[in-house]
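Technical note accompanying the year-one report. For the benefit of new consortium partners, we illustrate the data format agreed upon in the data management plan: each record pairs a sequence with a structure-token string. No post-processing was applied to the example shown here.
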Amino acid sequence: MTRHFLDLSDAGGDAIAAMLGDAIDRKRARATLPKGQPDADAPLAGRVLAMVFEKSSTRTRVSFDIGMRQLGGSAVVLDAGTTQLGRGETIADTARVLSRMADAIMLRTDDHAKVEELARYADVPVINGLTDMSHPCQIMADLQTVLEHGKALPGLEVAWLGDGNNVLNSIVEAAGLMKFNVRIGVPEGYDSDAGFIDRARAAGAAITVTRDPREAAAGADVVVTDTWVSMGQSGAEQRIAAMTPYQVNEELMGLARADALFLHCLPAHRGEEVTDAVIDGPRSVVWDEAENRIHAQKSVLRWAFGQL
């Protein structure tokens, strides 16, 4: 059976734990190697990943490309502007063609239904590189970063400040699978997907939604935010006005635990959702988080190929 990674639940809690352990071990094992040199075992030697971008990217593109090189494989980049997909070829036909030419497909797009359709017609693993609904690869890197900084996942208290977006949806999904809690500080009208919250609560996670950013941040082990205006969204002025009270600044960060970590998936809009003092401060681990996109996704790829 082909393994697709469209959301964290496609793998489940045990597999996610295995992937995170593998990512940490493999990162440590290649610490002294040049970044483009394959790992000693090159477990995906000869494999090709087709990367399809309908949304622009820095971290997703580079991390998957470098990750495949380190696993011994290679990657091909396609975008909507220079492929037949952008000229009206159906997703189903694209899936059939790419399945004959590549060993796996990564899609970064807007509508989540597109990645689901791609997976339905592909004979090779399909990985969600981001949709408007979820961003599971980002959360794998986030969880790895938290573990590397000495925090256990079960019982972890995570505070989210700002927009109820795709990144938050995947954090909430992870909470249900890995048994931690999330306090969501979000303005009215910008809530996250109720389905993710219901499923996480049913799995035993405490998911709290509050309009008070101070209540969300108080006592948190991890504080997370993201840009307030994502790619393709309209009404920037209105969104920024609504979310200004949720800016992660020194005062709000001061309500979290003394050893709390600050996470941001980047790119950051400094002076909007986060201040320079926080993102450049001693509790920020955003650069580790960015680097871990490579290592976490390598383990996602290995899982998709049945190696974990």
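Partners are asked to follow this layout when depositing records. Residues 207 and 254 are 22 Å apart (CA to CA).
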